[in-house]
Design brief:
Radius of gyration: 47 Å
Structural class: mainly alpha
Number of strands: 2
Strand order of the largest sheet: 1-2
Order of helices and strands: HHHHHHHHHHHHHHHHHHHEE
Number of domains: 3
Largest sheet: 2 strands, antiparallel
Oligomer: single chain
Helix content: over 70%
Length: 433
């Protein structure tokens, strides 16, 4: 019995110890679980924070520079567009003003009206406006274009300033294509010293390699430039030298005709001599004769007579018509210069004055008239031109009775030239183009 009691007591004690251990373990287990849960929650919060606020991306120096360049290009494109729009607007305004000005010039009836119209030439204003735009424009390309417009369309100080600026810029990189383009523009539309300087640069470029096609092109550009200058005379001589090596070619005929038309010095007689000798019946010869008729002098008259004698077909016919035109213009100018002032006579030159005013052979006009009359029946293509010259010789030569003219005066009243027969009449013909 006692043994049984001890056994039960032992079991009871063991059970109580087990419960104690179990209860002691629960807080530790709970704490561990709580810590785990807390750790999971903090991890989730950090993960959530990472997802909602991405880390800052660090760019390389190359990427930063690329973005800067892209932004700069975008800004430059914007500026260029705005500048170009301003230039186009100014060009359109100038074109409209020019149209209105030409209309006023056309409608001017008196000398006073024409004088007043000349004063409002838009070139006086717009040259400076183009120059101002060029100086204020941040886009280099549009600025250069505006400067060119100031040079082409401007007058006075604005044009001079534009020319000097263009020349100075081109001379900083004299071998570039852009500089060559500027020099060509200055030779075409410039004047004075800037134009001569540009021509000298083109000539120097051409002389570096005379056998090249570019050099020939530059020489042609110089020869076709208006006005007289030393570089143009040198260009004529150089092209004449190049032509001599292949004198019978079509290209030679083209070059010789150009020199004969544009040159004023010793190159002109040489070119005419070679044309007559090697290309007498070329179409280029006809081109050469046309300006001769408008500029009567002894050399042109002698050349036209020689071409008439040696030429054939349409060349011979054109030489005859040009000779008739030259004779008619020579007589008209002779009448004017016979009473001109000493200052005008001195500017004309003693030799030219003597040629225009000397007494003519009375048979000369009759001889030309007979040649024209015979030629008309054989060359239908020159019929109208020959008829006009025949009419001029028969009706408009010095000493002939003036043909009837009918018109209206400034008040709209009709009048005839015959109404003033027996009185001294001054006829003033003028036009505007």
């Amino acid at each position: 019995m006692r043994l049984k009691f001890l056994l039960v007591l032992g079991i009871f004690l063991l059970s109580a110890c087990a419960e104690t251990v179990t209860e002691d373990a629960k807080p530790e287990s709970s704490s561990t679980t709580s810590e785990a849960v807390s750790t999971n929650v903090m991890g989730d919060a950090q993960e959530s924070e990472t997802k909602s606020e991405p880390k800052a991306v660090v760019k390389s120096a190359e990427e930063v520079e690329a973005e800067r360049i892209a932004a700069a290009k975008e800004e430059a494109a914007k500026i260029a567009k705005e500048s170009k729009e301003k230039l186009n607007a100014l060009k359109n305004e100038f074109a409209e003003a020019s149209t209105q000005w030409r209309e006023k010039m056309k409608n001017a009836k008196t000398r006073e009206q024409r004088t007043e119209a000349v004063k409002i030439n838009p070139a006086n204003e717009f040259g400076q406006r183009f120059l101002d735009l060029a100086e204020a424009c941040p886009d280099p390309q549009t600025s250069a274009a505006a400067l060119t417009q100031a040079m082409i369309n401007g007058v006075g100080p604005a044009k001079t300033t534009a020319m000097n600026k263009m020349l100075t810029k081109a001379e900083t990189d004299i071998e570039s294509q852009e500089a060559m383009g500027t020099f060509i523009l200055l030779t075409q539309f410039g004047s004075g010293e800037p134009k001569n300087a540009a021509m000298s640069h083109l000539l120097a470029k051409a002389e570096k390699d005379l056998d090249s096609e570019e050099s020939r092109r530059l020489l042609v550009q110089l020869i076709n430039t208006r006005g007289e200058a030393e570089p143009k005379d040198k260009a004529c001589k150089l092209l004449l030298k190049l032509t001599e090596t292949d004198i019978r070619s079509n290209q030679a005929a083209h070059s010789l005709a150009m020199i004969a038309t544009q040159a004023k010095g010793e190159s002109k007689p040489a070119a005419m001599s070679w044309l007559i000798e090697h290309h007498i019946n070329s179409d280029k010869m006809i081109e050469v004769m046309k300006p001769m008729a408008r500029l009567p002098n002894q050399k042109n008259e002698d050349w036209l007579k020689e071409i008439y004698r040696k030429g054939a077909g349409k060349v011979k016919g054109n030489a005859l018509v040009s000779l008739a035109k030259l004779a008619a213009r020579r007589d008209k100018l002779g009448g004017y210069y016979s009473s001109a002032s000493e200052e005008i006579i001195e500017s004309l030159g003693e030799e030219q004055f003597a040629y225009l005013t000397r007494e003519r052979d009375s048979n000369e006009a009759i001889e030309i008239e007979k040649m024209l009359d015979a030629f008309v029946t054989d060359h239908e293509s020159l019929l109208e031109s020959a008829k006009r010259e025949l009419f001029a010789i028969r009706n408009l030569s010095v000493g002939k009775t003036a043909p009837e003219i009918v018109g209206t005066d400034l008040d709209g009243v009709e009048f005839k030239l015959s109404d003033y027969r027996g009185k001294v009449v001054f006829l003033d013909f003028w036009g505007d183009w």
